[in-house]
Specification:
single chain, about 270 residues, mainly alpha, globular, disordered N terminus
Length: about 270
């Protein structure tokens, strides 16, 4: 449901979404999931040469590449369904901030390494439940991507799990930093499992799944890891929570992320290797 921001005036009522139907709704649903993976892939790439050890540089780079591998067929599928014929590069590099539909969790800047592991634990726990469900999607492309991605995301979840355990049940300093990271991350989690109109439609049509239906299993897994790590699970309903990503309303870091990610492509449009 596209929002037309071009003619919004200061002080005016919030913009209302344009109605989508049929293949356009399917395209939007797939785009939301692909944008999550695209943006998080970009963020994880920032850890290369900045992670605590060289092996972790390589591990996070591989997770980023896995996510990018999920994105490519999904973006191509969007170009087929929405009738634009856009390529994966067109969709990745030539959309503005108000045309991206990812949740706020994945666009936040890289902070402490513990923050990244808290984010990866939550996101991979969500993605694993998501892709398990999407293996039964009525869209063949989405089902195919999900079938392959399940194995990859299991590794992502395990990688984050091992680090949360290591930090949480390590030294006093690492324990405190891991607990603080969980607290800083908690406000972004409800949005991940919120049922937006596009997801509701996709679930009803057999293409997708309700995000809320994934919350119990994902949260149970995270809670089990937190307990094993001798940490405390943050409040299920935080006093502040992010919202708006599925409506293309983003937090401050998003614009900077896109500027860096899209700079070369926009500086040399049409260039090929």
């Amino acid at each position: 449901m596209d929002i037309d921001y071009a003619n919004v005036q200061p002080g005016a009522a919030p913009p209302q979404p344009k109605e989508l139907s049929g293949d356009e709704l399917t395209a939007r649903y797939i785009l939301q999931l692909a944008d999550d993976a695209m943006v998080y892939s970009q963020r994880l790439g920032e850890w290369i040469a900045n992670a605590p050890q060289i092996e972790e540089d390589m591990a996070l780079a591989n997770v980023a590449l896995d996510l990018l591998g999920q994105v490519r067929p999904l973006y191509s599928r969007v170009g087929e369904l929405d009738g634009t014929g856009r390529t994966e590069d067109d969709i990745a590099y030539f959309r503005g901030e108000r045309e991206y539909y990812n949740v706020h969790l994945v666009e936040q800047e890289c902070g402490d390494f513990a923050d990244e592991m808290a984010r990866m634990l939550w996101f991979s726990a969500y993605q694993l439940e998501l892709y398990r469900a999407l293996m039964q999607s009525s869209d063949a492309t989405l089902a195919g991507v999900a079938s392959k991605a399940v194995k990859e995301v299991e590794y992502h979840r395990d990688h984050a799990t091992q680090w949360v355990l290591r930090l949480g049940d390590g030294t006093h300093a690492s324990h405190e930093r891991m607990q603080a990271a969980l607290e800083r991350t908690k406000g972004f989690i409800p949005e991940v499992f919120a049922d937006d109109p596009v997801s509701v439609n996709a679930a009803a049509s057999g293409v997708g799944v309700l995000p809320s239906s994934l919350r119990e299993a994902a949260t149970a897994y995270v809670a089990s890891v937190v307990e094993r790590a001798t940490l405390t699970m943050p409040d299920a309903e935080p006093s502040w929570r992010s919202r708006g990503g599925r409506e293309a309303v983003h937090s401050t870091p998003m614009g900077y992320l896109l500027a860096e990610m899209q700079h070369i492509a926009r500086s040399h449009p049409g260039a090929t290797w």
